[in-house]
Design goal:
mainly alpha; 5 helices
Length: about 90
């Protein structure tokens, strides 16, 4: 179940989800949310995502995504966030 803060965050950044029908935007998957914000959001958007979704939860979703064969995150961003999450959201915490 999504928190109100996450729903508000998605609504606030609805322009990044232009391909999703307006009435379905709040129901995007966690993976799509993280992927879209990392790929197309600003640094401020990413910081806001960490605040509302949580750094550890974002890292968990990201790690699940990179375990798949197909990943729609730019290689440079994938590398950066792998390093970032390994440092600031280690798996053992």
């Amino acid at each position: 179940m999504r928190t109100k803060a996450v729903k508000d965050f998605i609504r606030e950044h609805q322009d990044l989800f232009w391909y999703s029908p307006e009435d379905k935007t709040e129901t995007v998957t966690d993976e799509l949310l993280v992927e879209t914000i990392i790929n197309y959001g600003t640094l401020e958007n990413i910081h806001q995502l960490f605040e509302v979704f949580g750094l550890q939860e974002t890292a968990t979703v990201f790690r699940q995504m990179i375990g798949r064969k197909t990943l729609n995150i730019y290689p440079e961003l994938r590398n950066f966030f792998e390093l970032y999450f390994n440092k600031y959201a280690p798996r053992n915490s």
